Amino acid sequence: MTRVDDELHIEEKLVVCFDMCSSSAILEDLLATDNLRSLRDLLISTKDFIRLKSHIPGLLLYKFIGDGWILLFPPRTSGSALLDFLTRLSKRFSKGLANSVVPRLQSTPDVMGLTFGVDKGRLVRTRMMEQVEYIGRALNVASRLQGAIKDKDHNPAYKVLISKHAYTDLAIPVEDYSVEPVTRKLRNIQGGKRLEFMKLKLRV
Question: What is the pTM of this model?
Fold first, then answer.
């Protein structure tokens, strides 16, 4: 017998994955001095900013795993709106790091901040264990792109790696950002072939 929850629902989404550079080192440092509360407060502040200050109707804070986040945006979100939000988010996060976390570290990592991966595509929406879940290539690609920013980049903080088709659809105003084409191999994506993407640096 087929239930309503078993039906397939296909939705177009703009997917953004991001996480924190040097998170393991920061976590271990704060744990050693019993200062984990400062990191927890920063993560809660980040969550509240996403939910209350995005100014993008339809934005869904889909997942938080460890120090990584998955955001789902409406497919017609403009490049200007997306990058304005990511810039504001990055500035707030950077300020929180500097004011609340760094003063409590015994050793400050060389690289701190956020890195972002972006893709766009159709996702399957379903329900598992009483929760809404999404499945699709765009989720996998955005997650891999976020991780691939650090490849061959000694200063990856506050940079965004975007698939070419998402970059084209977003119509990003290139005059306002530093943008460069790059090639990367993504694990379990198209057999590990080297693919072309666009890398962008936010003004933080």
Answer: 0.92
